[in-house]
Design a protein that fits this description.
Elements lengths: L2 H15 L5 H12 L5 H7 L1 H11 L1 H14 L9 H22 L1 H5 L5 H21 L11 H12 L8 H11 L4 H26 L1 H4 L3 H28 L3 H19 L17 H4 L2
């Protein structure tokens, strides 16, 4: 990977990580359209470190209060806990599902789910669910009302983001809307919940792919720097946008993009495995849903 590609991937990661349109889908689709090799799930997870830093900077006050309150709540048993401590427990519990499913589906994440057929289907499917959540969600709850059950529920939705196209923010915002949170609160909870899962995924992939990553250290650094800057700007935009607007524009975009990809595949203009290096364990029959 050259530095130009790294810059493009970094910008794309930052622009699409927090909008509910799936960064992993775009990082899978773009190289397929341009004839580049697929950077892979590990690279995609690692350049999320830049967007993680963007979350830490933007929500530093919230995160520091939540972490401090959560630490103070340890060992207090059934005593009444402040809202920040409850948010902390919701984040901890909500991180468990994506860890469990991440290990259980490790091989599929690296291979099967990166088929463009899966990506397109996930783009459309989550768009429909997000639209349903917009229509059915009461949107009356604030972040102070969050419970550990909300953490588990939204955490299960977050696990769906292991499939490129579902989108971490898209799936968690959808789950939070179904739980009755308003749009801005759903986005805020989504961003806070993303911190441990992004960090753990980046550390895990950096360790398991350390030999490969050591040979492309500069592209990784460059991609993360660009994802940090664009990610921060994107968070600021989305938090303001959702205070007055619905997610309709993102729903429409997801459906149009998904249909376009399926149309190119069915027309023979795009190979669903484009850019993926074939392995003995992965065949066209098992990779296409």
């Amino acid at each position: 990977m050259d530095l130009i590609q790294a810059i493009i991937f970094g910008i794309l990661q930052g622009l699409t990580e927090f909008l509910p349109i799936s960064s992993s889908a775009h990082i899978r689709i773009l190289p397929a359209l341009l004839g580049w090799p697929d950077p892979g799930a590990a690279f995609t997870a690692n350049i999320q470190l830049g967007t993680l830093v963007a979350v830490l900077i933007y929500f530093w006050k919230d995160l520091s209060k939540v972490f401090s309150a959560w630490i103070s709540s340890l060992g207090k048993g059934g005593e009444a806990q402040p809202p920040e401590a409850k948010i902390g427990w919701a984040i901890v519990i909500g991180t468990v599902p994506i860890i469990v499913f991440g290990f259980a589906l490790k091989d599929q994440i690296e291979t099967v789910f990166r088929s463009l057929s899966w990506v397109a289907g996930a783009l459309i499917g989550m768009a429909l669910l997000l639209g349903l959540a917009e229509k059915m969600g009461k949107q009356t709850r604030s972040l102070e009302s969050v419970t550990w059950r909300d953490g588990l529920t939204v955490g299960l939705w977050q696990a769906m983001a292991l499939i490129p196209g579902c989108s971490r923010s898209g799936s968690t915002i959808t789950g939070a809307l179904f739980a009755g949170f308003d749009r801005a609160t759903a986005a805020r909870f989504s961003f806070l919940l993303s911190v441990p899962s992004i960090f753990l995924a980046a550390v895990y992939t950096a360790y398991t792919h350390r030999e490969v990553f050591s040979q492309m250290l500069m592209p990784l650094i460059v991609a993360n720097l660009f994802s940090l800057v664009t990610g921060y700007l994107c968070i600021a935009f989305l938090m303001k946008f959702l205070q007055k607007n619905s997610t309709l524009v993102f729903i429409v975009y997801r459906v149009v993009l998904g249909l376009a990809i399926l149309g190119m595949i069915s027309g023979g203009r795009l190979d669903p495995l484009a850019g993926i290096t074939p392995t003995p364990n992965v065949s066209t029959q098992t990779t296409n849903p």
